[in-house]
Fold this protein.
Amino acid sequence: MKEEQPICYTCINENCFIKKHLHLEQMRQFILKKNSFVSKKSDQFITEGAPLQGLYFICSGKVKTVKTGINGREQIVRLTKNGDTIGFRGFGTSKRYLIGAYALEDTVLCNFSNETMLEILQNVPEFTYALMLFYADELNKSENNIRKIAHMNVRERVIDLLLYIHRKFGQIDGLIDIELSRKEIADFAGTTEEQAIRILSSLKKEMLIKTVGKRIGILAIPELRAEIMEHKYF
């Protein structure tokens, strides 16, 4: 992994917890303690079950977080981009990471160690409060996802995923700005690769989506939303 030192004060990720609190004078001492590096596409920078090494903040790039399920199969639990936080599950309550994380493209990451994060939480109340609200929001999202997955059929889960990545990453030139393999789509939707391919093919024939290689474009957002509206689309 190549060493790189992006400067927090010129960072454009306004959603990053660190960036949001740079106006506080006491944050300056903690910024100097961070470690920044580049994780190449497909590299794993967090191993599930490995000792906790603090939190990671995405400066640029995209990341998938995974959790091992039945028969050792990895299930994608989250897709993240610039400004998002990685490794927060289990932080403060566990000594090991509860998830694994892979770069989906060359990604610049900022890592704050356990010790540094603890210092921030003990000395910067505004940061601690914001992180508490973040955890509450993530818990709410997790509960909603569990409820939706329990009641959705496979087609609905794939549609829900497509709408999620469209909201999260947006479209450029008619294609969602993230490249996911059919296997990754299946893993995130909780189905098999064969079923995911069949459903994507069906949606394409119905002129609801288009595909260019691994990339997918949404052609009919209202129609797709309507299919899962009964599950309380967010």
